[in-house]
Amino acid sequence: MQGSARPAIFGAAALSLLCACGDERPPLAPPGETEALAGADAARGRNLVAGQGCVACHTIPGMRGPLSSVGPPLDNLGRRAYLGGSLPNTPANLVRWLLDPPSVNPGTAMPKAGLTPAEAADIAAFLLGRP
Ligand code: HEC
Question: Whose CA is nearest to atom 32 of ligand 1?
């Protein structure tokens, strides 16, 4: 009796694990990598994004702008595997990308905005949905 109940329980556990993999995937950016965004402020980042005209090329959740898709939409950025199609998406690499996209990918259409490292970290915190 006991022997036959066990596989059923394991089966149910495995099934619930599979279900957990649905929409609630964890962000790909390692949550432990916090140094790159130490002291960063997502609210400041949001203001910077609004002031820098990023919406001219990107659709950004919660921000009004032209229906433009020069670059990819910036929603759910934490779940993206690569930035600019080649740079592994980590908080440090996101800051690097924001500081100087052409240094990562010389052919990219995204210009260097002239951000300071602190501003890039603020924007990264906003885009990654950090508090
Ligand atoms: C002139 C248009 C333009 C402007 C302005 C612009 N971007 Fe981009 N951005 C792009 C393009 C095009 C890409 C895709 C790059 C590639 O694949 O080489 C991109 C890629 C990105 C990526 C990587 C996303 C991914 O999935 O690869 C991020 C993050 C990003 N931009 C953020 C910003 C922010 C923040 C601003 C404002 C400071 C901004 N961009 C301003 C055109 C622009």
Answer: 98
Ligand 1, residues at Cβ distance < 6 Å = 49, 52-54, 56-58, 70-72, 74, 77, 80, 83-85, 97-98, 105, 108-111, 113, 123, 127
Q: What is the DSSP letter of 130?
A: -
Ligand 1 centroid to residue 61 C-alpha, Å: 14
Joined together, the tokens standing for residue 3 give 């022997």
Q: Spell out the domains of the chain, with CATH numbers in brackets.
A: 38-131 (2.60.40.420)
Ligand 1 mean position to 35 CA, how many Å? 23
Residue 13 structure tokens: 């556990």
Q: What is the pTM of this model?
A: 0.81
Q: How far apart are CA 75 and CA 129, in angstroms?
A: 10
Per-residue pLDDT of the chain (131 residues; tens, 9 = 90+): 555 556 565 555 554 555 444 555 555 555 546 678 989 999 999 999 999 999 999 999 888 888 778 999 999 999 999 999 889 999 999 999 999 999 999 999 999 999 999 999 999 999 998 86
H or E stretch at 46: helix 42-52
